[in-house]
Design goal:
alpha/beta; globular
């Protein structure tokens, strides 16, 4: 039996209201944050990788060297839920998808692989950090329609996940799940260098 096909989905469309600029364009580890996140999915074994852009999309395309499939969310101001719907629709025939947000640079390829190892069409799993749910999230194809229907505003997949059994995947030993909501939070992660996701 062939191994499940695991896609990657990077949500990078937000305007970064609290951050002061689109997070996709923030510098991180000598490149843009969106490049770092996309490479995390690629290095974690995801294929294809779909990247959803919105705020600053033209500048991201001009400045970033991005792998995979790039799609625009014209409704990015409506929140993460709209980006999730756009991204799921663009994936194609994968069995499952690992979803990552652009503002979690401490997530490592190892964490992506750990989630991807559970891939199946009926899978639902998410990384946890000391018991707290975070990213990445793994969603099997059987759930995509329900996730898309439930996604609203900035809640993303959360409403769907709260109503279904989800496998918790501890990742604190190989990654850091902190969201970089403000520039100072990103600077603290960046100061740790390219191995920011490796706990010390």
């Amino acid at each position: 039996m062939a191994a499940p096909e695991v896609a990657g989905l990077l949500l990078a469309a937000g305007g970064g209201r609290r951050f002061g600029m689109p997070k996709a364009l923030a510098p991180y580890d000598d490149r843009l944050l969106v490049e770092h996140a996309a490479r995390t999915l690629v290095d974690g074994g995801c294929d294809p990788v779909v990247i959803v852009l919105g705020a600053g999309a033209d500048e991201v395309r001009e400045r970033a060297d991005l792998p995979g499939i790039i799609v625009d969310n014209p409704d990015w101001e409506d929140g993460m839920g709209s980006s999730l719907r756009v991204g799921l629709a663009a994936i194609g025939p994968a069995d499952a998808v690992v979803i990552l947000t652009v503002d979690t640079p401490g997530v490592t390829p190892a964490a992506v692989r750990r989630l991807g190892a559970l891939a199946a069409v009926d899978a639902l799993a998410r990384a946890t950090y000391d018991g707290v749910p975070g990213h990445p999230v793994l969603i099997g194809r059987d759930h995509w329609r329900g996730v898309a229907a439930a996604a609203d505003g900035d809640t993303g997949a959360r409403p769907y996940l709260t109503r279904h059994p989800v496998t918790a995947v501890p990742c604190a030993d190989i990654a850091v799940g902190t969201d970089a909501d403000r520039p100072d939070e990103l600077r603290r992660l960046n100061a740790r260098g390219p191995d920011a996701g490796a706990p010390r």
